[in-house]
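User: Fold this; tokens only.

Assistant: Input:
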Amino acid sequence: MEERNSMTNEEIRQQADMLKDYVIRCRRKVHEFAEPSGTEEQTSAFVRKEMEDLGLPYERVSATGLMAVLDTGRPGPHMALRADMDALSVPESRENLTGPRTCLSKNPATCHACGHDAHTAMLLGAMKALKAKEDRLRGVFYFCFEEGEEDGRGVADMLKALGRRKVDTVWAIHVYAGLPSGTICVDPGPRMAGAAGVELTVVGKGGHGSRPDMAVNPVMCAAAILTNVAMAWVNQITAGETVTLGVTSIRGGDTGNVIPDTAAIKGSLRFFNIEEGRKAVEVFKQVAEHTAAMNRCAVEFGPRFKALCGPVINDKRYAAIAREALLEILGEECVVSGEPWYASESFSRWLAAYPGVFAHLGTKNPEKGFGAAHHNSRFDVDEEVLSLGLTATLKYVDAVQKKYE
């Protein structure tokens, strides 16, 4: 006999198929808005209207972040489903890798170069599908639309709002250009890297370029710091652990015959072990301070020179539940394993607070122009994968429902 409190695979597929065009329309609308972190007013208003049309109670948890609640009135798991909404201050190319895009940002200075438009659209689809199947569900669902993922501004308020509620598990999807379209990865363990900022200023004493002996050259000191840090990395980062040293800027003046007073170094560190990340920050600081002293300079550290977020780590139990369920509905050709992604994500904080899964949904299809790296002006999403993402979300919900005791 069919269980009342569950959805069959056929019902899930039907919902995903019925909502395919809706999800694509939502993705294109949000893509046109393309609002950077903290400015997602149009996007938030659009999401809010969809919540109102479904009759779901909701609250604004931050400047633009929203949470809607579907309470079935029956005992069951409390599940938080999350999407991010912000775009990037990156001008959008009118073409992807092979030709014109299906839709363009209306703001030439911003675009959805990371796929958050797709995340918002898939969660709107899941919200609509679960509301339609409310009589087949139990427990409580929180549909969480997080503002400012790129700069991390919205996650604390969202988690604070969830902290006032019971939450058993969390789920989110990130489209990923590193996996082929039509595949999804829900591997356990570290899936995305933690991050620390590199932000320091070397303070010396300016002077004429012809007499470095009468100045204290911060540019030479900054260069020495980077050389020494690279040497320390080899000898002090724990064997078997990964910490990348991504220095992206060293700036110390603009004139060929003038020694500046200061030089600045910027970049980031990435890691999959939070303690090793904190250790790496301290190693960098010690090397910088001692190298500065050797060169008669001082060093000042900016507020972002610290571990900013931990790695994204999928819970083993819930990842196993997800994998088993997705294999059942999607098959082995779709459910794949993948290497951890070195980008960072605020969902790390969700998974540090609650057990759950962060899925990577492949969107790489070079023949159709999809596959440019994230945060690139040519990044584009293969809209054909959105139904797969919606199917995966609904199946995860169903699997957790069946595990509820």
